[in-house]
């Protein structure tokens, strides 16, 4: 796999607003946020797509979600909720071929028609 922008961020070759780091994962703010809070959590191991995951990668994928939950608690939006999602390949919206977890928060994330119907049904 060739170097991606994420590899360059991991290697500190290009800047990013890093918000969390362990030996296995790195989290940083998305440069094109789609919500008031939008950051990415990436493994330091280069894995191109979800389809490229091997059984031994299960732990690192779990670490991505654990990091997201820890950041959500630290930043105070865990209780209100957030969305954590990975895209895979072009039809899935993946643009950087290094798996990454998008974490979005700070506004309701439901599908708009569903949210409107739910709000109408609530007392």
Task: Please write out the topology.
Layout: H1 5-10, E1 18-21, E2 25-29, E3 37-43, H2 58-75, E4 83-85, E5 101-105, H3 112-121
Active site: 100 (tele-amp-histidine intermediate)
GO molecular function, one term: catalytic activity
Pfam family, one: HIT
Features of the shown structure:
123 residues, HIT family, subunit A, five-stranded antiparallel sheet, 5 strands, 20% strand, Histidine_triad_HIT, Histidine_triad_CS
Could you explain how this protein is built, in words?
The protein has one domain (5-121): HIT family, subunit A (2-Layer Sandwich). It has helices at 5-10, 58-75, 112-121, and strands at residues 18-21, 25-29, 37-43, 83-85, 101-105. Strand 2 (25-29) and strand 3 (37-43) form a beta hairpin. A five-stranded antiparallel β-sheet has the order 1-2-3-5-4, covered by helices on one side. It is of the alpha+beta class and 123 residues long. The chain has three helices and five strands. Helix content is 28%, strand content 20%. It holds the Pfam family HIT. A motif (Histidine triad motif) lies at residues 98-102. This is Hit-like protein involved in cell-cycle regulation.
Number of domains: 1
For the largest sheet, list the strands in their spatial order: 1-2-3-5-4
Question: Considering the protein shown, what is the CATH homologous superfamily?
Answer: HIT-like
Total number of strands: 5
Structural class: alpha+beta
């Amino acid at each position: 796999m060739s170097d991606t922008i994420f590899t360059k961020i991991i290697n500190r070759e290009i800047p990013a607003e890093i918000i969390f780091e362990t030996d296995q994962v790195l989290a940083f703010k998305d440069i094109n946020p789609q919500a008031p809070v939008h950051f990415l959590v990436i493994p330091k191991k280069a894995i191109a797509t979800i389809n490229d995951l091997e059984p031994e990668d299960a732990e690192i994928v779990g670490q991505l979600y654990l990091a997201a939950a820890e950041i959500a608690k630290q930043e105070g939006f865990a209780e209100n909720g957030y969305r954590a999602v990975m895209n895979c390949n072009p039809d899935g919206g993946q643009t950087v071929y290094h798996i990454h977890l998008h974490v979005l928060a700070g506004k309701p994330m439901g599908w708009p028609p569903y949210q409107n119907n739910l709000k109408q049904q609530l007392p």
